[in-house]
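User: Protein folding is very new to me. Would you mind checking the protein record under this note? It all follows right here:
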Amino acid sequence: MTATPKRWTRWQRLKHFLRVNLIAGFLFLAPIVVTVFILRVLLKWADNAWKWVPDFMRIPEKLGIPETGTGVLLVFIVLLCTGIFVRNYVGKRLARSIEKVILKLPGVNRFYAATNQLFISVFKSPAKEFKQVVLIEYPRPRLYALAFVTGIAVGEIQRKTKEKVLNVFVPTTPNPTSGFYLMVPQEDTIKLDLTVEDAFKILISGGILNPESPELKHKTNLTTDTSSN
């Protein structure tokens, strides 16, 4: 928790306490509430999916099993079969043709493109490609920004710079999936012990959630143990 200035009045301390803790509570509970709500909506939608199936293919009805709850299995089978189909040559060609038609429809194309980008950001998160969290001086000296190392520059870039250059991604806040690609000399980066997940928490919360590094946690535990003895 951040320290409050000693000259603050009681009212200022109370406002700071309420603001910090309310925001922290919201950032923790909001994703859980939204996730539960979305899951409930999806489960209801999955159960209604049987209505789109012809009568002779409604297996639960033929077996005397209630359709409630079995819609998830139906959606699972549909997604699996669709995934298998669109990954082969014929399926890929068909999927691209359908996508081209959708992108030519006025109004619909923008909604489809935005939705498509959202799902790509969620399920193909660039966090999986990040190898290390570092600090760099950006956009000017003595101003620091979190950055993710994506690899080492190779080829002509490495030869022309005549020093070891790292590929880094500088994310934006509160949407860390967008940002800037920079090439930074390795000696100008400060390696952090933060995990990629903890760095994302800091970025999304705008610095309100600030997980401690493993080293700091270890030192804190040692201090606590020593003082207790």
Q: What stands out?
A: Strands lie at 132-137, 144-152, 165-171, 179-185, 190-191. The chain has eight helices and five strands. Residues 10 and 16 are 10 Å apart (CA to CA).
